């Protein structure tokens, strides 16, 4: 029996986590994500000034382009879509679907992408951009500030103006001209992120989705020693693939219950408009430009004679919770507990349950199973922009602190925003234990209703 439990405190954001319900011990592995680029933020690089108008007064902040360094090589340029959250020093970010961020519930998210595609740095001919906006001229700082201001008006519903008149005219032009655009595809993902079955079967397919010309395919260390191969549908061992390729785990008949992983990696430009979320609740970013960058994704497989289970988890901001999907590809039912409620997944079926969470609520789930298997995934639900909940600005790292205009509050010089970023979440910590009890009851009701319906 695999047990899914919740405890009271965790840190980090996992947009998608893959968990395998049978096999060798896998405790405390790094939670897997949906794939793509992983990067570390380096702060504002090209920016001007803007003024946020709020009931408590006006506040001047820096507005412009951030720069990120990609793990494995590459550079990203991003704008903020979370105006009142601070940026944590050296925060790590993961390419994330809009559904895992505030963009997933923002009807104007497509307009933000239009702005990105039609302004700086995608349009780096500043004379042309100035002509379109009807201004005399634009510096890089003005272009970055004006673009950020226009984005904030749609991402946060903020009342914000650029200080420089040219930047302000650009912001007005972009805001009025923006049209709806579709969410861009991920730079690299594997679908599904977890598969299961019986020894002797082909486990899969796992389909590659990427904008790269090709990807390398590598099995996890130890997979070969167990006789597990990564093959295509014809049985050919795969070491490289492309968009649309289908991969299978070939598990020898008679193999002991176990698990394995495969990793795909590529070098490509990340599509403009992809969201980036952090594990430390640093302000959410949206991609404005990308160099050739390293991207990767991982999928897992598990097999067992008496019922193998593949479990994946993903933040669902539209439902204010975490979707937990369990798929049983074995020949026996699989029983597990979810927050005190026992559930059985028949062979050949799958079930998705949304665990409801409050905004900013930490979560920590652990799944344990046969043969010493143990895996946990953690995070903080961060689906909403903060509005006027906090007084922190987007000013980040070692850049100058914002000035105060009209009596608004400001951050004192030299403040380490890695510390001030805790203000919005600190009041939540004391109530997490109570919140999780409420969640458990809610999930129990949802699951019992679903089981009752399934039994009818």
Descriptive account of the structure:
The protein is an alpha+beta fold and about 450 residues long. It is built from 7 helices and 26 strands. The chain has a 6-stranded antiparallel barrel with strand order 3-4-5-17-16-6. Strands 22-21-1-24-25 form a 5-stranded mixed β-sheet. Strands 9-18-15-11-13 form a 5-stranded mixed β-sheet, with no helix packed on it. The two termini are about 25 Å apart. About 50% of the residues are buried.
How much helicity do the residues have?
10-25%
Rg is: 24 Å
| Mean model confidence by pLDDT | 77
Shape: elongated
**Approximately what portion of the residues adopt beta-strand conformation?**
35-45%
By DSSP, the count of extended strands is: 26
How many H/I helices?
7
Strand neighbour order, sheet with most strands: 3-4-5-17-16-6
- Uncertain residue segments: 1-32, 369-373, 387-452
**Gap between N and C termini, in Å?**
25 Å
- Summarize the main sheet: 6 strands, antiparallel, barrel
Q: What structural category arises from helix and sheet content? A: alpha+beta
Give a brief description.
The chain has 456 residues and is α+β, with helices and mostly antiparallel strands. The chain is built from seven helices and 26 strands. It has a six-stranded antiparallel barrel. A five-stranded mixed beta sheet has the order 22-21-1-24-25. Strands 9-18-15-11-13 form a five-stranded mixed beta sheet, with no helix packed on it.
């Amino acid at each position: 029996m695999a047990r899914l439990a919740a405890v009271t405190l965790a840190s980090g954001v996992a947009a998608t986590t893959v968990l395998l319900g049978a096999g060798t011990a896998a405790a405390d592995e790094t939670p897997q994500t949906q794939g793509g680029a992983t990067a570390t933020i380096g702060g504002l690089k090209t920016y001007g000034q803007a003024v946020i108008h709020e009931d408590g007064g006006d506040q001047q902040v820096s507005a412009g382009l951030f720069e990120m360094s990609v793990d494995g090589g590459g550079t990203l340029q991003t704008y903020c879509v979370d105006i009142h959250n601070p940026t944590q020093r050296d925060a790590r970010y993961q390419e994330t679907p809009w559904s895992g961020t505030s963009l997933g519930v923002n009807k104007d998210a497509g307009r933000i992408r239009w702005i990105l595609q039609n302004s700086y740095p995608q349009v780096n001919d500043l004379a042309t951009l100035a002509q379109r906006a009807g201004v005399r001229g634009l510096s890089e700082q003005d272009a970055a500030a004006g673009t950020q201001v226009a984005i904030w008006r749609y991402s946060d519903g903020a009342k914000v103006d650029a200080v420089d008149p040219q930047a302000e005219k650009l912001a007005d032009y972009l805001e009025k001209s923006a049209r709806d655009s579709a969410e861009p595809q991920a730079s690299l993902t594997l679908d599904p992120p977890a598969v299961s079955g019986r020894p002797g079967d082909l486990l899969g397919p796992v389909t590659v989705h990427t904008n790269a010309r090709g990807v390398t395919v590598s099995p996890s260390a130890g997979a070969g020693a167990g006789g597990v191969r990564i093959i295509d549908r014809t049985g050919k061992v795969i070491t490289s693939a492309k968009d649309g390729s289908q991969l299978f785990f070939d598990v020898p008949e008679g193999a002991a219950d176990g698990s394995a992983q495969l990793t795909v990696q590529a070098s490509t430009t990340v599509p403009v408009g992809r969201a980036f979320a952090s594990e430390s609740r640093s302000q959410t970013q949206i991609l404005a430009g990308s160099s050739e960058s390293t991207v990767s994704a991982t999928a897992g497989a598990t097999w067992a004679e008496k019922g193998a289970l593949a479990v994946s988890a993903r933040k669902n901001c539209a439902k204010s919770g975490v979707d937990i999907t369990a798929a049983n590809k074995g020949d026996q039912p699989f029983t597990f507990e979810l927050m005190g409620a026992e559930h059985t997944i028949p062979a050949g079926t799958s079930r998705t349950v949304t665990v409801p969470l409050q905004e900013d609520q930490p979560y920590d789930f652990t799944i344990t199973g046969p043969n010493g298997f143990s895996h946990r995934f953690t995070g903080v639900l961060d689906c909403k922009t903060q509005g006027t909940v906090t007084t922190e600005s987007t000013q980040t790292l070692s850049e100058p602190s914002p000035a105060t205009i009209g009596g608004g509050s400001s951050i004192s010089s030299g403040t380490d925003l890695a510390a001030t970023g805790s203000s919005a979440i600190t009041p939540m910590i004391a109530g997490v234990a109570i919140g999780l009890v409420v969640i458990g009851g809610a999930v129990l009701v949802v699951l019992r209703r679903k089981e009752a319906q399934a039994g009818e």
